[in-house]
Automatic annotation (TrEMBL):
Protein family: Belongs to the IspD/TarI cytidylyltransferase family. IspD subfamily.
Taxonomy of the source species: Bacteria, Pseudomonadati, Pseudomonadota, Gammaproteobacteria, Alteromonadales
Protein name: 2-C-methyl-D-erythritol 4-phosphate cytidylyltransferase
InterPro entries assigned: IspD (IPR001228), IspD/TarI (IPR034683), IspD/TarI_cytidylyltransf_bact (IPR050088), Nucleotide-diphossugar_trans (IPR029044)
Site (Transition state stabilizer): R21, K28
Keywords from the UniProt entry: Isoprene biosynthesis, Nucleotidyltransferase, Transferase
Length: 234
C-alpha cells in the first residue's frame, strides 16, 4: 500500500501475559469486574475512540478464552499470537499490520480504566506534531533512591519524574525499527517509549489520569472495580 493510501491508526493490545504478580490461576485479563472481564472493559474503552480503525489483540498461543467472548466478533477487532515478553507481543502485533497503518497506539489489556478522553488527547498531540508520545503523569510523592541494603541513599528531585502509562503511540515504521534495534542491542524494553529513546527519537509526555492503573497485583483488581464504577456513575 502506498504511503498516501495508508490507514491512520491501529491499536495493538498486548494480552499474552500470564499475570505472575497477580497470583491467580486465571490470567488477569480474564478476571471479572462487574460482570465483564478486564479485557472486555479495556476493548470497550478503545472502541469508543472512532479514530482507532482497527484493534489487534495479541494473545498467548495457549489462549482459548478470547474467542469465546462476544467482543471477539467485533468488526474492528482481530487477533495475533504473541511472544515470551511484552515487547515480543507488541512486535507481533505491529508486524501484522503489513505496513497498512501509519500509527500504532499500544495499550495494555491490563489497563481497563483508561479514559477515552485521554486517548483522544494523545492522538491529537501526536497527529498534530507528527511525533509519537505516551500518556503519563508527573510524580506526586517524594522520591527516594535506595542503597544496596534497601535503605535510603538519597532523595531524588521529582520535578522531572513521570509515571509511564499506556496508550503509547508511534509511527509504525519508527516503532518497528526502534524495537529491532533495541532487541539487537539486548536492551530491556518495558514499554514502547524505551525503544524510541534507544534510537534517540522524541516522545511527547501527554498528561493522563493516574486512575489509568495497570492491574498488576491482587489489590489492583479491587481498585479497578471502584474506578470503573465511578466512571459509570459520572
Ligand atoms: N509476553 C507478554 C507479557 C505481557 N503481555 C501483556 O502486556 C501487558 C502488561 O504487562 P504485565 O502487566 O507485565 O502483564 P503480565 O506479564 O501478564 O504480568 P506479570 O509480569 O505479573 O507476569 C499485559 O496486558 C500483558 O497481557 C503480553 O502481551 N505478552
Ligand atoms: C507499558 C507499561 O504498562 C507502562 O507503565 C509497563 O512498562 C509494563 O511493564 P511492567 O513491567 O509491568 O511495568
Amino acid at each position: 500500500m502506498s504511503t498516501s493510501a495508508k490507514h491512520s491508526i491501529a491499536a495493538i493490545v498486548p494480552a499474552a501475559g500470564v499475570g505472575k504478580r497477580m497470583q491467580s490461576d486465571t490470567p488477569k485479563q480474564y478476571l471479572t469486574i462487574g460482570g465483564k472481564c478486564v479485557i472486555e472493559h479495556t476493548l470497550e474503552k478503545l472502541l469508543q475512540v472512532a479514530a482507532i480503525e482497527k484493534i489487534v489483540v495479541v494473545l498467548s498461543k495457549h489462549d482459548d478464552v478470547f474467542e469465546t467472548l462476544a467482543i471477539a466478533k467485533h468488526p474492528r477487532i482481530s487477533t495475533e499470537i504473541g511472544g515470551a515478553e511484552r515487547v515480543d507481543s507488541v512486535y507481533a502485533g505491529l508486524t501484522s499490520l503489513n505496513d497498512e497503518y501509519q500509527w500504532a497506539l499500544v495499550h495494555d489489556a491490563a489497563r481497563p480504566c483508561v479514559e477515552p478522553g485521554d486517548i483522544k488527547a494523545l492522538i491529537a498531540t501526536c497527529t498534530e506534531s507528527t511525533e509519537g508520545g505516551l500518556l503519563a503523569y508527573p510524580a506526586k510523592d517524594t522520591i527516594k533512591r535506595a542503597n544496596a541494603d534497601g535503605n535510603v541513599e538519597t532523595t531524588v528531585s521529582r520535578e522531572l519524574i513521570w509515571h509511564a502509562l499506556t496508550p503509547q503511540m508511534y509511527k509504525v515504521h519508527d516503532l518497528v525499527k526502534a524495537i529491532d534495534f533495541s532487541l539487537a542491542q539486548q536492551f530491556t524494553i518495558t514499554d514502547e517509549s524505551s525503544a524510541i529513546e534507544a534510537v534517540n527519537k522524541p516522545s511527547h509526555l501527554v498528561v493522563g489520569s493516574s486512575l489509568n492503573i495497570k492491574i498488576t497485583s491482587p489489590e489492583d483488581l479491587h481498585l479497578a472495580e471502584m474506578i470503573l464504577q465511578q466512571q459509570v456513575n459520572t
